[in-house]
Design a protein that fits this description.
six-stranded parallel β-sheet, seven-stranded parallel β-sheet, GIY-YIG endonuclease, helicase
Length: about 800
């Protein structure tokens, strides 16, 4: 052991390898001061300086007595935690993700931790004005920070350090976050908002019978108020509080009568969180008993889990997979273990949460990006302490610090939303969940009506168990699927703009029967293309190589890649012609045309454009669920696993656009989308209908959807994947190279491709120019690496690629490189 290992007084020096919240190729090592020895352990956060002046909360990965070879280590400044915030299993997941998805540990850390756990000198701190700050005991420095934040909208960690004259203030900020006096501004947008309702309680004064008798006498001169009070007493007999809406309906009084009683302090208004499900839906779920098919599937699943680590549950839409999940969760809770229930979309998470909470109560917690940072930090700590036993969430819930995870459920496992696209790590939550479960020796259930080809292949190969559930619950039949030949309709001139005569007739029939309709068009905006009829000019984005989409609601032409917009043209800027032809149609146009065709119908739209505000998505779903919308027009948002009991008709307006796309997964995605949106129809007591509008009624994918024949679809696709070397037989790595100079990019991409081909041979394809060759003024070139799963060493190929990639980044520092393993 050399002299660097000893301090001046002869004690052994210890060092901490830490993960910084930065995209660094390696972790850095810091010296542990003697007074911190024993405090600094893996999983705790420490305050460190990186670079000349930046401060970060880094995460201790390991403690060592090895002096770093290439630099003199700086000292750790502060220990921020009393106990580890990250577990051994979490580090195992992080290490695997960094290795498998070819990214840095810092990038994984940034994705994994809530903002309050990854402070830096540039982190912005905001005063929580909803907290009861005056009631919290604060020391002198904490009080000074509060006073400063009361005068400023926000301050950075660096600002607060200067204010207090300290090198690091991270322990102080951690204390204020724990006391809920401040929060991190990174997470203040898009806060989760539960559905609430106005309730009324009787003032406690009137619990006294004498006081109540006097109140009756006082209200004799106001008979409507007396009626309201008497009705309240009857309704509140067992519940204590009564919904304001129910009281008005039962007593027949107006809102003003109720408000008068509030002003007289007879009633106390209360806001209470309520279920997003209709009450009868909750009751149905709780009262459900297994059907014979469900019972068989449940027993087969349990049996397979004895020998398999994962089971694929292939159940048709509305087959009752949720009830199976609940029964399985119960088993693992009885063993004292935790369960993770992953869903692909936040919207589905909220609907499913209400169902599960009605069954499991307060042992359930929800975790996703719509919650603010305080809420996510609180859930993190509860999971770490083991007090949260069931976690329901989107893909980020994978990163929570589970103590004893027993069961992982990945519902709708086929969904693309499980894949993280930007920034790194570009991980797939389904595959990461399987690895996570292995770390805890937990079991995994993958559920879908339309499994991904990879999952179904793995099940047939015996890697997963396979359970099928081919009957809908309650003996409800699968919807009747009909084809509308749009070529024939247009020739006969029987179509109503973009609606077949058949679809219009069925919509009218549904509305007459007080039923609801979902119409699916997977393109937002009014029209995707404007073109000059005279010279052929098409408006293009200034920053991207893509045409602009016309949005009638804003009156603008918009780029869907970078957000650039400009006013709608009145004439062609190239030739001056006034004839600009609108080509194609989006959800906006569908909505407008329906309002003309069916003026009495209540129509709404569900797409990215009208769900940008915090709670718009929830509000539209609430209105549809409550029967305030007759027809819901939407993009693929409406295909997700949402459950609406009154929908009996689904229309797919342009099926051809789904499968006519230059991508090897196009047929798989189109089949899944059509089957999933079809599954929204007829989910309760009566059989629903689906109408598919297409110009290709004999296309093989249309035929398979018509027959609901997943096996035929799978066999057709798997044969082509095998023939052309695609997953599941080959693994793919996509490399996107970006630069502002197209000539420089083309030359660099060609050189990198040559380097890779010299090392990896025919596995490397490209470079090629993608369909959209420039985005945000960055030109793009793509390379693809195909790795044979049977004959190649995947780890060896990745190792060679990583060496070549490091060489590329060293030589071309201005080049932006994005690596996507298992791209979708």
């Amino acid at each position: 052991m050399d002299h660097d290992h000893f301090s001046q007084d002869g004690e052994v020096n210890l060092f901490a390898e830490v993960i910084l919240p930065l995209a660094l190729p390696v972790n850095y090592t810091y010296r542990i001061p003697s007074h911190m020895v024993g405090e600094v352990v893996p999983g705790k956060r420490v305050a460190v300086q990186f670079g000349k002046s930046r401060m970060y909360s880094a995460l201790v990965r390991r403690v060592t007595d090895t002096f770093p070879a290439r630099y003199a280590p700086k000292e750790i400044l502060e220990v921020l935690d009393d106990s580890p915030m990250v577990t051994r299993q979490q580090f195992g997941l992080w290490d695997w993700m960094a290795s498998y998805y070819l990214c840095s540990a810092g990038e994984v850390m940034m994705a994994a931790l809530p903002a309050s756990l990854k402070l830096s000198s540039q982190t912005r701190i905001i005063l929580n004005r909803d907290s009861h700050g005056q009631e919290i005991k604060l020391n002198e420095k904490e009080s000074l920070v509060r006073q400063a934040l009361e005068q400023q909208h926000e301050l950075t960690v660096n600002d607060l350090a200067k204010l207090l004259g300290q090198k690091t203030v991270m322990p102080l900020i951690k204390s204020l976050i724990d006391k809920e006096l401040v929060y991190v501004s990174e997470q203040i947008t898009g806060g989760y908002k539960p559905r609430t309702a106005a309730y009324l309680e009787l003032d406690p004064v009137y619990q006294d019978k004498e006081q109540l008798r006097e109140l009756y006498q006082l209200l004799e001169r106001a008979p409507r108020q007396l009626d309201a009070l008497m009705t309240f007493i009857r309704l509140a007999k067992d519940k204590g509080r009564v919904p304001k809406k129910e009281l008005m309906e039962e007593s027949g009084v107006s809102s003003s009568v109720i408000n008068s009683l509030v002003e007289k302090e007879v009633f106390i208004p209360v806001t209470q969180e309520v279920s997003r499900l209709q009450q009868e839906d909750v009751a149905i779920l709780l009262e459900q008993q297994f059907s014979a098919a469900q019972q068989a599937a449940y027993e087969e699943t349990r049996s397979l889990l004895e020998s398999k680590e994962a089971v694929l549950l292939h159940g048709v839409t509305a087959s009752g997979k949720t009830l199976l999940y609940i029964k399985l969760i119960e088993e693992y809770l009885e063993k004292g273990q935790q369960a993770l229930y992953l869903l692909p979309e936040i919207a589905i998470t909220e609907q499913m949460t209400q169902r599960l909470r009605s069954h499991f109560g307060d042992s359930l917690a929800v975790y996703h990006s719509r919650f603010n940072d305080n809420e996510r930090g609180e859930i993190w700590k509860k999971v770490l302490q083991g007090t949260c036993r069931i976690i329901v969430g989107a893909r980020s819930a994978l990163f929570l610090p589970f103590q004893d995870l027993g069961l992982v459920i990945v519902d709708e496992e086929h969904e693309n939303s499980y894949k993280q696209f930007d920034p790194a790590p570009r991980y797939h939550a389904r595959d990461s969940a399987l690895y996570l479960a292995g770390l805890y020796k937990a079991k995994t259930i993958l559920g879908s009506a339309t499994p991904s080809l990879e999952s179904y292949y793995n099940a047939l190969q015996g890697k997963y168990g396979l359970v099928t559930l081919q009957q809908r619950y309650g003996e409800v039949m699968l919807p009747e699927t009909l084809i509308a030949d749009m070529l024939r309709e247009n020739k006969k001139k029987t179509a109503h703009s973009h609606f077949s005569s058949q679809l219009v007739e069925e919509i009218k029939r549904s509305l007459e029967n007080k039923k609801q309709v979902i119409l699916f068009r997977n393109r937002r905006g009014y029209v995707p293309l404007l073109q000059c009829h005279t010279c052929g000019y098409v408006p293009q984005c200034m920053h991207c190589d893509i045409s602009l989409t016309y949005h009638r609601s804003s009156g603008k032409l918009v780029c869907h890649y970078c957000g650039y917009s400009e006013k709608l043209l009145s004439s062609c800027p190239a030739c001056g012609s006034l004839h600009l032809e609108q080509k194609g149609f989006g959800t906006e146009k569908v909505e407008d045309e329906l309002k003309i065709l069916l003026p009495q119908a209540r129509i709404s739209r569900l797409d990215l454009d009208n769900t940008r505000s915090k709670y718009a998505f929830q509000q539209i779903l609430n209105d549809f669920e409550d029967g305030n919308i007759d027809i819901l027009v939407g993009t693929q948002m409406v295909t997700k696993g949402l459950d609406f009991s009154n929908v009996t008709l689904v229309g797919i307006l342009d099926a051809d656009s789904l499968f006519r796309y230059p991508d090897f997964r196009a047929f798989e995605r189109s089949y899944q989308l059509m089957v999933q949106v079809s599954g929204r129809s007829g989910r309760r007591s009566e059989r629903g209908k689906v109408i598919i509008q297409t110009a290709s009624p004999r296309h093989k994918i249309i035929g398979m959807v018509l027959q609901n024949d997943y096996k035929a679809f799978y066999q057709s696709e798997i044969d082509e994947r095998r023939q052309f070397n695609y997953p599941p037989f080959y693994r793919l790595i996509n490399i996107h190279l970006k630069h502002k100079n197209e000539e420089y990019l083309a030359e660099t991409a060609a050189g990198f491709a040559s380097l890779l081909k010299a090392r990896l041979g025919k596995r490397v394809l490209g470079p090629q120019i993608p369909v959209v060759a420039r985005v945000r003024n960055q030109y793009i070139r793509d390379l693809l690496i195909k790795i044979d799963r049977e004959n190649d060493s995947i780890s060896k190929v990745k190792e060679i690629f990583s060496i070549c990639l490091a060489e590329l980044k060293t030589r071309h520092k201005s080049l932006l490189v994005q690596v996507d393993v298992d791209p979708l």
